[in-house]
Amino acid sequence: MDLISQGKNASVFKKGDNAVKLFKEGTPKTDVLNEALNTTRVEETGFPIPSINEVSIIEDKWAITMNYIEGKTLAQIMKEDPDNQEKYISQMVDLQLEMHSKRAPLLNKLKDKLIRQIQSLDNLDDIKKYDLLTRLDGMPKHVKVCHGDFCPQNIIVTEDKMYVLDWVHATQGNASADAARSYLLFALEDQKTADLYLDIFCKKSGTAKRYVQTWLPIVAAAQLTKKKPEETELLMKWLDVVEYQ
Fold first, then answer.
1. Do residues 231 and 213 touch, judged by C-beta distance below 8 A?
2. Which segments of 55-213 does DSSP mark as H helices, in order?
3. What span, in angstroms and rounded, lies between the C-alpha atoms of 178 and 137?
4. Which residues contact 48 (CB under 8 A, 6 or more apart)?
């Protein structure tokens, strides 16, 4: 097997016409099966994603085998062609809006996941948690397919279409929460690109920018559960922003 990519929890290898996601030893069975189930439920909507062929154990490690998609990530393309960032982000938003048009009623609810994440944080006091949970409770309840980690690194571009990878965080919920999460991922790397993304998303979706921004403290709190020291300072600042102009 040839190594394609290596992440914190798993590595992806190419094996013939398949891609094999090999999880690190000790990865809970529930996490692997949940990712496989999420992926299958999204696949049933007809949205372009790799199709799972098998869940197995390889050398004492859990593995998910899916069809291999030949192409580059959108992140690679954007890096190689920095003069056309707006075009690529526009294409990414079109794909995200197509995803938000889908329904998968058996996916977990985004709001339930966010509640669990906020409640689990030990570096926030009870008052801050209460404020965040109150804000979350007041948000409109939607049932759109949400990726939860929608960014250029998780989009494969082929000759004729784009495919979206990594559905471990997939839920059904509010599209603006999913957009706020994408904005956050951009902003942790480059604020200018994040602002461009938000402008394009709001224009194409007909969503008020302020509405997406009201989700930012909530998704910032959820991101804190990943416990990345280099992100903590910026995320904590977002928690303190009550209203955006």
1. no
2. 74-80, 85-100, 110-120, 126-137, 175-187, 191-205, 209-213
3. 16
4. 161, 162, 163, 164
pLDDT recorded at residue 245: 39
Q: What angle do the packed helices 175-187 and 216-224 form, to 10 degrees?
A: 60
HSE toward the beta carbon, residue 167, CA cutoff 13 A = 30
Structural tokens at position 24: 């690190």
Model confidence over 40-58: pLDDT tens digits? 999 999 999 999 999 999 9
The pairing of strands 72-73 and 155-157 is: antiparallel
The amino acid at residue 188 is L
pTM of the model: 0.92
DSSP class of 62: E
158-178 pLDDT, tens digit each:
998 999 999 999 999 999 999
Per the document, the length of the chain is 245
